[in-house]
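Annex B. Sample input.
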Amino acid sequence: MRSSLGRRIVRGRVAPVIRGHEGSALIEFSLVALAFFALMFAIFDFGRLFYIQFALHSAVREATRFTVTGNVLPDPNNPGQFLSRVDSIVSTLQRAVPGLDVAPGNVTVQGPDGAGDAGGPGDVVTISVDFDIELLTPMIKPLFPDGVHHYSVSLMSQNEPFDV
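Annex B, continued. Sample output.
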């Protein structure tokens, strides 16, 4: 028996008539899944941003520790020879950032004589690295110019007394 309100009377109770709702679960799932995956990718993008920021700070700190000692690294291409101090610093920085490809041109070592100078004993040296990362999430990309976030990390230190 049916009532006038589109409800069916079943054993003395009024129950709504369910017709044409077979696809509603699929539509609800697609809306919820879209929001869920957008949130997951946004979390992933911001996690990448924080990881890269941390990794670059750590790498510059490692390169600065290496710089103040005045040490140089062996040249991997020429056994028995050594890299220049600036190349040794850049190599140290690159090895300290696993998973990131920091180009040597993005690393600046600046001493008292300008860029490309690692300074001598007691000199103040600044190490800087610039790195751009493209964001992946379409909803987050518009928040950054051209969908790219630019990192610039610098650290200044004074060289220890070392033998030249």
